[in-house]
Amino acid sequence: MDLGIRGRRALVTAASKGLGRGCAAALAEAGVDLVINARGAEALAATAADLRARYSVAVTAVAGDITDAGARSEVLAAAGPADILVTNAGGPPPGLWSDWTRDDFIRALDGNMLTPIALMQAMLPGMIARGWGRVVNITSQSVKAPIPQLGLSNAARAGLTGFVGGTARQVAPHGVTINNLLPGIHATDRAVSLDGPVAKAQGITLEQAAAQRAAGIPARRYGTVEEFGAMCAFLCSRHAGYIVGQNILLDGGAMNSTL
Ligand code: NAP
Fold first, then answer.
1. pLDDT for 91-140, tens place per residue?
2. CA of 188 relative to ligand 1 center, distance in Å
3. How far is the CA of 238 from the centre of ligand 1 (A)?
4. Model-level pTM?
5. Based on the number of CB atoms within 10 Å of its own CB, is 96 exposed (0-12), middle (13-18) or buried (19 or more)?
């Protein structure tokens, strides 16, 4: 399918690896020029070079912590009048509800709520003025079904989801859509960081911990970054203009619900 976005320009944050990279790659495949970001300059430059070589699109790499206001300004300056924004940042660490301090919550809110909101506040006015725009926020299945040990994620992402629910309806009259993509477990470094503690606690290997987790998912496997990226690119496409303010779960059927 021609996604109808060839020649458009996108900013994808936290995109050197994992789900962000999957989104960037799928947009590049659709002919979209990119500005990508991550903290580690080396991996980011390697991803940019790979995407340029494979898809012949322009890719600008801006290294920096997207939760830092100064770095965010640099990223936004490089993005300029982009038509597409995919927000992403690392997830908060697992832990126990009783242990988290105010500082832990502030860090989680910064990463997974206030940063995507700041990016949207910066880029939505230009999209509205031009009469076309697409925003996809990478959130988590934890928005629909809380994950006990990821309470910081449950809390921060719920806040972002509320903001999007209201804002998406305010920008839709201008041809701008905002939607959230909710990953269940996907085969990335983040999955390894979640399976590691399980393996350690149970005295099993990382592979056994992953197999155990996959056994509880109807699809019996982890999602791939390619599958995730394809859905992201579709939401950014010309065809997705009537999808507004939705929370789309990509979890292999893990959450047991009818609707
Ligand atoms: P990942 O494989 O660990 O990749 C994270 C990417 O984000 C890397 O490119 C990393 O590069 C970059 N990054 C992290 N923090 C950043 C920051 N503050 N500023 C700029 N770049 C940053 O993670 P993932 O699996 O793709 O997960 C992406 C998001 O989806 C996370 O919020 C995660 O919690 C959420 N999620 C993932 C899963 C899953 O199963 N994978 C499930 C549910 C939710 P640098 O480290 O170099 O900055």
1. 999 999 999 999 999 999 999 999 999 999 999 999 999 999 999 999 99
2. 9
3. 27
4. 0.97
5. exposed
